[in-house]
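User: Could you check the structure of this?
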Amino acid sequence: MCSPYRYWDFAPGGENTYSYVYASAAAGLATFRYDRLGTGLSAHPYDAYNVVQKPTDVAIAIKFAEMLRAGEIGGRAYSKIVAVGHSYGSIQSQAMTAIAPTAVDGVLLSGYSANATALPLYFTSTAYSTASLVFPTRFSNAELTNPYLVTLAPWTNQLNFWYFPYYAQGVADYARMTEQPVSQGVLFTVANNITAAEQFTGDVRVVTGAQDWIFCYSNCYAVPPDSGYASIPAGVQALYPAAHSFSTYIPANTGHVVNLQYSAPESFQNMIQFAEMVFSS
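Assistant: Sure, the predicted structure tokens are below.
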């Protein structure tokens, strides 16, 4: 799973409603997650331009998949792997299937579509600022150089990631308190080289909130009548011409943070059903 610290195992006060890891474990599925380079307990390289960027992150994801196949993590080799990403993690996962099409057997892209036209507006409206200035008690200049950024304020965070009022304010507050940085290198390279995974023959599912602002302009059903697609996320199918199967799930009343809105339990069940389908095939 490729996404920042805590997102996949979000359990404030031990409450597991918003933990995909907990829901998967309850269904008998093993998960492997890691803190992306520059976040959480992973290294925070000084050069947040040339080192901490998309190509590096994708190479790391591919290497982890290879290690899981070979039993080099936890002493157990996994014959079937599903990559589960969110937002930038989905961008990495899609790139992984294009570059290393046999690395995983299925890919679940959440908070994602093939429409990147809103990304420039997202960078502006999120109003990123230096992490050590926004959260001086959490991050220091000794730990993070200036190109490590976080969202400037709670309201810029809410605008881009949440769909009001379909979330608990306490959950949003805790997410803000545990927010992890993104590097300018990532922001500069995030939309680069999005190419079709022409040789990927596994299964693909896209799970994107109906009101996702970043990838759907807040309406995932706003497609031209002659587009041939029922939704914006459905357009991802064009990136997977050889996929064994392609499907979408669009939870209602849900913004970008699929795992943290009220719809999360239903979204988790859909994700788990997809993983079970891949593992049983």
